[in-house]
Amino acid sequence: MNDKLPIEVRGSARQPLGMPPAQFLRDYWQKRPLLIRNAFPDFQPPLQPDDLAGLACEEGVLSRLIVHDQARDRWSVKTGPLDEADFAGTPSTDWTLLVQDVDKWDADVAQLLEQFRFLPSWRIDDIMISYAEPGGGVGAHVDQYDVFLLQGLGQRHWAISTDPAAPKDFRPDVELKQLAHFEPTHEWLLEPGDMLYLPPGVPHDGVAFGGPCMTLSVGMRAPSQAELTGDLADYLAERLDEAQRYTDADLAPARAAGEIDAAALARLRAALPFAAALDEDSLRDWFGRFITRYRNAQTPAPPARPMTPAALRKRMEGGATLLRHPWSRLAWSRGRRGATLFANGHAYPATGELAQRLCAQSTLAFDDVPGGTALDLLTALVNDGHLVPHKARR
């Protein structure tokens, strides 16, 4: 990455990006922020604040009214549809209105997307418009998608951080996903027609300055890998023949009760569309959780009162046995860092010896009460309902 590239350029009617689109995509897209002064010369917003407020009051329109109590640093969020009383009750400063998908409701706003045709049209999500009184904003945050922030009315102060080591943890006391810590590395005051491009993951904070402010945000569609994988899995599952099952015609006698062995994992890799891409530990962890959860009519209920390792040790020293709950379904597998016991979709670190014993026996009695991690495992299984202490043997 070339760190000597400018972070601020000047645009024009001919080149809103301040450079040819191919150069922007090569040097900035998903790589680094860029402030483009005068990206849209003499820009006039296609929508007025009163029109935006009216849209926020409509059914089916996604909108939020956010008010910041500066004195107590408290944030309130009201989700639309809004009404006139909501706006009448706002203070003179420190609030903002956000309306999403404005391009779907207003043809003039949608026309702005013509300026972004250098991107695949399916990549563009929406144009969100924010209106704010002085001091209004949503706090420092991080977006997981590319966004172009076009100043439409008034001025907005933008601060961003390009520090790759900047913490990304969130405040626990705010409904909005605000950053708990934010130290800007660059700050600007944007005028109408200026545009700030931010790739995913850049911490930023925009605050209305001096008077009423309106910003148009052109956001991109960026599904997470989890969303892509889940939807593709659903797509494939709908089209796979139900008669095609997990098979093990090459099965050899089990060497250890409950073990998901290497041969089983090899069969999974051959049978599943996704399995070839998974590393051994991920495949083992997924299948152990899945197969102990699969077709379970019921699950064990935890005890009314959790038990401590010390209390369990005392009962076991008194001769108590541990009974496996009839609805508890167990399996285990060896890994590079020991073994894992699976119980009804949950995973527990274990030794191979203890995991095998738990899978092989429905009643466990110990001449020598285990300690350390083994006792911690037994306590966790008791507190999750998989093992039930039984009174002392007579």
Task: Give an overview of the whole structure.
The protein has helices at 21-27, 49-56, 84-88, 102-105, 107-111, 225-239, 262-271, 280-293, 309-317, 352-360, 372-383; strands at 8-10, 34-37, 63-69, 74-79, 95-99, 124-132, 147-160, 186-190, 195-198, 204-220, 321-324, 330-335, 338-343, 346-350, 363-364, 387-390. It contains eleven helices and 16 strands. The strands form three sheets. Strands 1, 2, 3, 4, 5, 6, 7, 8, 9 and 10 form a ten-stranded mixed sheet that branches. A three-stranded antiparallel sheet has the order 15-11-16. It has a three-stranded antiparallel sheet with strand order 12-13-14, sandwiched between helices. Helix content is 25%, strand content 26%. The N and C termini lie far apart (74 Å). It has two domains: 8-220, Sandwich (Jelly Rolls); 257-394, Malonyl-Coenzyme A Acyl Carrier Protein, domain 2 (3-Layer(aba) Sandwich). It is α+β, with helices and mostly antiparallel strands and 394 residues long.
Order of helices and strands: EHEHEEHEHHEEEEEHHHHEEEEHEHE
Number of domain modules: 2
By secondary-structure content and strand pairing, the structural class works out as alpha+beta
Largest sheet: 10 strands, mixed
State the assembly state of the protein chains.
Answer: single chain
Please tell me what the overall shape is.
elongated
| The CATH architecture of the largest domain | Sandwich
DSSP strand content: 25-35%
Cα-atom Rg, whole angstroms? 29 Å
The counted number of beta strands is 16
